[in-house]
Design a protein that fits this description.
By secondary structure, this protein is an alpha+beta fold. It has twelve helices and 19 strands. It has helices at about 5-25, 50-55, 155-160, 180-200, 205-225, 230-250, 275-295, 305-315, 315-330, 350-365, 390-395, 445-465, and strands spanning about 30, 35-40, 60, 65, 70-80, 90-95, 100-105, 110-115, 120-125, 135-140, 170, 175-180, 265, 300-305, 330-335, 375, 400, 415-420, 425-430.
Amino acid sequence: MPMTESELVSKQAAVMLREVIDPAVYPRSTQVRVEAHLRGDARAALISPERACSERYEAVGVGYRWGPKWATCWFRVRGEVPEAMAGGTVGLRFSTATEGLVWRRGAGGWEPVQGLDVNRDFVRLYEQASGDEEVDLLIEAACNHPFGVTGFEWDDPDVHRRWSSPTPAMLERCEVVMLDPKVWEFRQVFAFALGLLKDVAEDSARAGELREVLLRAMRAIGVAEARCPERGVREVAQDQAEAIARALARGEDRDATLCHAVGHAHLDTAWLWPVRETKRKCLRTFSNQIGLMERFPGYSFLCSQAQHYAWVEESCPALFAKIRVRVEEGRWEAGGAMWVEADANCPSGESLVRQIVHGTRYWTSRFGTRGEQRFLFLPDTFGFPASIPQIMRLAGLGTFITNKLHWNSTNRFPHTTFVWRGIDGSEVIAHNTPGADYNAVNTPKELRRGEKNYRETTAGERARGE
């Protein structure tokens, strides 16, 4: 069967993205020295970066395999920013196909900089390098995958074979690179437009506009690449990014749904990993959010589960102090009411009450009025007993938020925002997030699914006179 026009343009754009645009995001790179200290006993106590500095290291290179599962490997990365990168945004690209945390020496000792995983391998070091800066980092890599110690079901067979071996982790990349911010921004809007083209109807005006703007961008890149292969993408990046952004901003129709995006890291306190790994995941996650807030002044973040804050406060007071500043600004919302996102099927009412008491008490003790709780947030827990509205009202909570009502094999839940009445008559506002995924990454497909779910449920409510 011949490809449609949208399929043909999508295929061309995907190749352009992978083969031309992505490499141009990091136009310069240089290798740096890397050494490893393997702690292969998965049951051994974790060590601090201060302790890691005093351990013995061996020189390693790309391709170095290590394990077993749940082991820890500390990497020491040292080098210099070359003169050729002077004036540019410089960072480290590092990957072991596992999770990890980058530590950097600060005025008060070693501080966490950013978490690494299969979704991110770039760490910003200098916004405007002079070309002679020192690179001296520790990376605490954990031999686990986001799904514990197994690959994603969609991963290549080689990935699954590696995670079945005694040494699942592998040093895939370690290099100092220069980031081109304009090309990076262009890459984001180009990829978003490509994703949207794949999801809209072939014969719609929206699809026609997207095909045209992507084709124009690819033609411009082709002309610029022919003129100057080393700077082709950069030369057209800003103009083409603006053209694609204008096309995206026009919306599908006049009454296109408005989406307010707030960051949220869905982190299970206990699932496919030991609790000690949850503690390390908290450091990675919270460090990432602080970095994003520094780069994007309009970014806000919602983080539930008081237990996670308590772990970070205990293990890394410097990071917790940064969180406290962002909470005071109103950009970091410490909310959700409960100590952890609790299962609500098995525990008694007394247990649920204590979850709220300990959670709300902790947040107000650390953040004052900014820590006062207004909603109960249970995006991924099972079971919602009819006693919850009464417990919420008695705790001063007026709103309930979840995503789990989409997990229904029998009948589709008919509401997005509704009033939940408990067994004693207590009522709270309840919201079932329409995107149907608490791990949403705001792809066009996800956003359109949320819009569709929201419109269908609200249309049904209007038809029923609700």
